[in-house]
Amino acid sequence: MNIQIIGKKKATFTPGGNIKDILFTPYNGRAPSFIISVTLDDGNGNSITIPADFRLDTGNVVKFPTGTLKDSDTQASPLILSGAPYLAMVRARQALIELAGDNPVYAQQKLPEPEEPFTAIHLLSSTRESQPFAKTWDGDYRVYHYNCSAQIIVIRSSDDAQAFLENFLYEVDSTEGEFWQFDNNCVIDRSGDFENSSPLIDNLVYQQMAQVTLTLQFVFQHYKKERWIDSATVKANEVTFHIKGA
């Protein structure tokens, strides 16, 4: 059965719900997306729409643990995973899309057939400072801003693998690339030499391969819905507080 939220996923269901975890790739949109429904489709024109009410920000991952999504549900309530690792992969992918005109995949996804050129992104490590450097408001949401860093391997499989990666880094260092980094609060630097192999795909028969390790310095924004006192009314010996937020 196909599950439609932002993109599609295939899953197998029993009366007890999904038999395995359902994990979507990180949300790649630049603006928040407010999800109001989840659609289940059996591929034969039969579909069920389940109401939902959750927000996705850039880098968020939707996860339905085993048994938490049923076609009889009155509301879909997934886990929303967020953090520096997911945002780092999204920022690397966005840079490749917008600066190199590419359409990379994540290394944990199913890779294309060997004869097709492709780019894959693999996260080596990420860190986030323990305390936010700023706190702001976005509507009803409190936003916590954290400085983060990550190391990402970008793998290219094609006849011109190394040339492709060299051109991408040239674009990163160009004026357009500098504007991109500024607009996205993400600094990209090469932190290793080009290598003409990749342990992630060496066991497969691919075309010429190359990989390069990048260091990303970026800002992660954590959104949290919070309550606050908007106003208070005093009448005689009675005080009424007006609460807004979650």
CATH topology of the largest domain: STM4215-like
User: If classified by CATH, what would the architecture of the largest domain be?
Assistant: 2-Layer Sandwich
What is the end-to-end distance? 34 Å
General form: flat
Strand content: over 45%
Q: What is the number of helical segments per DSSP (H or I, 4+ residues)?
A: 3
Structural class of the helix and strand makeup? alpha+beta
Question: Can you tell me the CATH class of the largest domain?
Answer: Alpha Beta
Count of beta strands: 17
**Stretches where pLDDT falls below 50 for ≥5 residues?**
none
Our Rg estimate from Cα atoms comes to 22 Å
What is the N-to-C order of secondary-structure elements (H for helix, E for strand)? Answer: EEEEEEEEEHEEEEHHEEEE
Largest sheet: 6 strands, mixed
Helicity range: 10-25%
- Overall mean confidence score, pLDDT: 87
How many domain regions? 2
